[in-house]
Amino acid sequence: MRLDYVSIFPDFFSPLELSLPGKAAAKGLVDVHVHDLRGYTHDRHRTVDDTPYGGGAGMVMKPEPWGEAFDDLLAPTTTVVFTTPSGEPFDQRLAAELATREHLVFACGRYEGIDQRVVDHARERAEVREISLGDYVLNGGEVAALAITEAVVRLLPGFMGNAESLAEESHADGGLLEYPVYTKPPEWRGHEVPAVLRSGDHARVAAWRHEQAVRRTAERRPDLLTPSVLDDGTPIVRAT
Ligand code: ADE
């Protein structure tokens, strides 16, 4: 998968050399390119923003530098991701969908946003997704692009050693939240590992984990408890 990032803060993307995406790059699964939007300006001040038509607070990102960046980067096989608080909410389903694409271009806006014609124009040339990380406002789309990247890259075939651990974690298939996990020692600072997990009884362990997952989901994310999630009595088993 090829990944391009367009931003006025290219340094934001140095973490891509570390951690998960770094591992993916080392394995040859992703090919990462970062672009400074100001590199597509032609005036002395490398201007990327201007005042909004219709008035109002703040500045809007000008279309011309984006157009030139897209001239360089977009192909018919490209999916352009605009990170914006007014986009569709990012979730595991969307991460899995993006993981099937061969080329993602992340367009990271700042200020009050990007001139709408940039999005409309990109739609004429490629698939476009406007994506929000959540119902809060960040200073710009860079952190959102990094979070989306990490969620997508770990789903690429060949990235994870054990594909089962992907299928069984929280939010896979929009299911239940993950049950609590424990490791040695059996007692720590007065807190014990639940006895059932040390019983060696696999059926009881599976039933306990399912019950814990349901309880956690009911407490923290009741919106996820659809009848289909609860009807499915499949035990949730974490891969080792
Ligand atoms: N840019 C600013 N806030 C954002 C958010 N919540 N999600 C994605 N991009 C953003």
TrEMBL record:
It is an enzyme of class 2 (transferase). The keyword Ligase does not apply. Its EC number is 2.1.1.228. Keywords: Cytoplasm, Methyltransferase, S-adenosyl-L-methionine, Transferase, tRNA processing. Homodimer. Specifically methylates guanosine-37 in various tRNAs. This is tRNA (guanine-N(1)-)-methyltransferase. It comes from Nocardioides humi. The chain holds residues 1 to 240 of 385 of the full protein.
